[in-house]
Amino acid sequence: MSEWQPVIGLEIHVQLKTRTKMFCRCENVRGEEPNTRTCPVCLAHPGALPVLNGQAVEWAILLGQALGCAIAKRSLFHRKNYFYPDLPKGYQISQYDQPICGEGRFVVPRENDQLEVGIVRVHLEEDAAKTVHVGGTAGRIQGAETSLVDFNRGGTPLVEIVTAPDLHNADDARLFLQLLRQTVVELGISDAEMEKGSLRCDANVSVRKLGEEGFRTKTELKNMNSFMFVARGIEAEVERQIGVYEGGGAVEQETLHFDPQSGKISSLRSKEEAHDYRYFPEPDLVAVEPDAAMIDAQASQLPEQPATRLRRLETTFGLSFYDAQVLNGSPAMVALFEAIVEAGVDAKASANVLQNQFSAAGVDPTAVDAGELAKVIEARETLPRETFTTALAHSGDADFAAAPYLEDAAVSDTAELGPLVDAILEANPDLVNAFRAGIEGLLGFFVGQVMKETQGKADPRVVNELVREKLSG
Amino acid sequence: MTIDTLSLTAEAAQTLLGAGEITAGELARAYADAIAERDPEIHAYLRQGDSPDGESGEGVPIAVKDCISTKGLETTAASKILAGYVPLYDATVVERCRDAGMPVLGKTNLDEFAMGSSTENSAYGPSRNPWDLDRVPGGSSGGSAAAVAGGLAPWALGSDTGGSIKQPAALCGIVGLRPTYGTVSRYGVIAFASSLDQVGPMAKTVRDCALLYEVLAGRDRNDSTTVELPEPVTIPTADSLNGVRLGVPKELNDAEGIEPGVKASVEAAITLADSLGADVEETSLPRSVEYGLACYYLIAPAEASANLSRYDGVRYGHRASEPSDLSEMYERSRWEGFGAEPRRRIMLGTYALSAGYYDAFYGQAQRVRTLIRNEHAEAFERYDALLSPTSPTVAFPLGARTADPIAMYVADLLTIPSCMAGLPGLSIPCGLSEGLPVGLQIVGPQFSENRLLQIGHALETALAFDVVPERLR
Ligand SMILES: [Zn+2]
Description:
The structure holds two protein chains of two kinds. By secondary structure, chain A is an alpha+beta fold. Chain A has 15 helices and 13 strands. An eight-stranded mixed β-sheet of chain A has the order 4-5-8-1-9-10-11-12. Chain B is an alpha/beta fold. An eleven-stranded mixed β-sheet of chain B has the order 1-3-2-4-6-5-10-11-9-7-8, with helices on both faces. In chain B, helix 4 packs parallel to helix 5.
């Protein structure tokens, strides 16, 4: 099996969370009563015309920049023609040979190297409406008693990202997709939730012999709605194709559906049934020609990329890949981390506390006064565990201050503890002698006495040492 | 006072209204009476609009071609597939007319989806030419032209794709202006071929057309292809053509199929232009005329095939009864709803856009279109306007060309080239041939409406054509 190499390219659709739809002024929201966010344009009434959403264009350019794409000086919309009830015009306004963003390159950091994925293009289009099929086999139009259409979703702005076939295993595909999702979310242009359909992924899959030139026939796996299903779907399809070749057969070009329940792959349509979309330039819209100033403005808004940030966490702060990756899940967490380190706390320890106890406390990192939290983390080894946890839990409170918690800090000052130890030893001369005679187990008794006297505030390590020192002296 | 709707111009009606000599109600009533009297034989209207009580506006009423959406008033584009469809919104041009106080007299007949040159393709029966009831009024804006010529409306909105304003204006002896593409909004105008469709005024005089064009023109935020006029519309007053450079393209004036009577009338008008001070010169547009028609019959049907996809029986309009499944619903709804001409063009257009044919047909046609545009642009370096017949023939008898689509297509031979180039064109009546009106076509460069209207007005004044059909005088 090992001589086979999977070749995988992804097509990702991301719903943009613009205020209004792609080509009309309807509110772009989910979860409202069906068909309450519609107008003549998104219902394709006779004579209605599309008007391009400027925000969607800006965001597509922003995303293109994040993916290292060349931004087209001139891009066009095309009509993609096919009939389906969720497509009221009988064509989807999409982009074809002049997308808004051209070739790019997206780097996914890995522990010892990095995954480089070519971006073929990023383009804008409108989402279809939602169909609900009642009766018949679950969710299919064939055999349904009634099919209902909710046009609220119809016309939602979508960006489609197409990667080069640069991925060679399902895990890499998942890694890429996760980082892409994070990038999109951090840009603030989409919620990108796979379960809710605001991020959707199709995979083009083929296999070839290692070292073989060119590509073999690919199949397209449609609409896998979680990161795990994407990985499992690809794995299943790769295995199927290898099986076909090893059985002496040939892989057919077709569109496939992966059923995560059964793990089975079934055919949606063959090459012969493939649509001829009859693309042609959309005459109702003019070309998009973003000027240099607008492109620069978008570029200046571009936040630090998650991948760049991850590498910075490793190099600047010496974190392990694992720690950096966990912390990098949230830019706010990284910002807090940096502020804490800035306040003088050890980086490794800060990362540790933030990704464990702090995360467990569920505090919003943006609400935290990093200086105060730094004091708490600095004193972590001298604070009783309960005090430490309570302090973290309150670190997001408006009036949070470290001082009251630090009062619970363990007494580790030998000048303070020395006289106390002396007094206890003097009060127990028999036991002192017994210890010195070799009953070392008595050490615990003396330490316990000190802790009792200090009401637990003494640092047990310091006390231990001090008692041992005085007994042997 | 009695209102003679046959001879009353819109401008004169405005003057009478302004002077308080008549009321808007009386004016509307006069047209309602004329419609009741003569429309049963002319059949210019598919249905009447605002009741003639004068409450729907204090201005001069207007007839609206039935491919233009009127809120609350059925709009069918003369197709059975839209029978019973009532728009939820006014087209921008209707809104502008309403804002100018103009009541809507009714919706005028046309060839189904504006596809045709005689109104015989209307699913609701043809309109007849007020000059001769056995002849066609031209098309596709034949209903609007017949309404104006027959005294059933002072002015009307027409729409033009390849000659649908100018050709019926010529055949009915009235004035029609096809404006520069992009100066008048298409929002709410049922699309035939989006890159060619343009709404324009039809009226008895050039000044009426100018007055109506002033109401219609200008950028519309709902139509991305519209622009602001480079200069305001001026109402023409010129009676001289001193210094005006007029070109007479020989291919447009000597084309095969131009009737001798038409040629004679147009030549006389050209001689008159010369005597009014114009510099008249023969010129040439070889490729525009040779390839214009063929090019048009690829681009227009291609766009139409997509534009007509929305009529699928899902949301409005005709739906076949008891379909067994979705495909059958689509197929039967469309088969039952569309007439022969839309079906023919949908098939032509679908073919021209299909994989493997796109480049040879649609792609090639777009390249030829650029050529036609350039050839016209070169001509306008030397001339202010180009003169030719509007139609090769006078109004032809009903039924004469219905069996031969190509014979019908040739009716637009002379109007199509400038439409392909997006240029404005005016048709004015310039005489009679066999007792039927002949139209003179005046085409100018982009945004030259003011100049065209000046030329048209000077010629019209000198020609003194009586727009009242002889049999109705
Ligand atoms: Zn809408």
